[in-house]
Each structure stands twice: as C-alpha cells, then as structure tokens.
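Subject: Sanity check before I submit

Could someone independently write out the structure tokens for this chain? I want to compare against mine line by line before I put it in a report. The sequence has 115 residues.
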Amino acid sequence: MSDNCLFCKIINGDIPADIVEQTATTLAFCDINPQAKTHVLIIPKVHIESTRDLNDENIHCLSEMAEMANKIAKSEGISESGYRWVINTGDDGGQTVHHLHLHLLGGRQLQWPPG
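---
Independent answer below. Compare away.
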C-alpha cells in the first residue's frame, strides 16, 4: 500500500466509498464523477501504479479485475446491451490517480472516438 494513494486509503477504509463488490484481492466502487449511468472503478487491493508496472507476479490482478467487471456488468443489467472498459496509463493517457484501475462504463450509448 502507498500511504498517500487515494485508492489505497479507500482500500484501508480511511476514505469512504460506495462499494459495489469486493473479493480478497479486488475492490469495486462507484466513481464520484460518473460519466454514464453505470460508472464503477475496479482496482486491485495491492498498490500497482499503472499498467506499466504489471509483471509476472501481479498480472493476475488484471484478470481478476476483468472478471469482476463482467460480473458487475451482468448485475447492473448492461451485459447484453454493451459496456466499455477503460484503463488510463500515465498522465498523457488520462490517468489522474496513480493506482491501476479499470473504469466500467455503461447504461447509455457511448461515443467513438472516446476523447
């Protein structure tokens, strides 16, 4: 865990969040600035700064995040109509919190290109 990471503070319970789902290794919560009817952030409970830091020891975190995203999409009723996963990497990629996270977006028609 990182002492000054916003998402690590949520994992530790130091900052409240609207928790949607969690396992021993993964946590999902509602985005505080939703861009769609469903906008959930899915994070590993270990601090991984970004996709650049994925390696043989922690790559399983990404598959666990993906499994949770699909489970939540189903429970939110967007699995059949469609949804989007977004993972931003680095400042130019739009990453504002430097803890790996997957945005699950759905519940409306999403545009392309995304921005």
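---
OP: Matches mine. For the report I'm noting this point. The mean pLDDT is 96.
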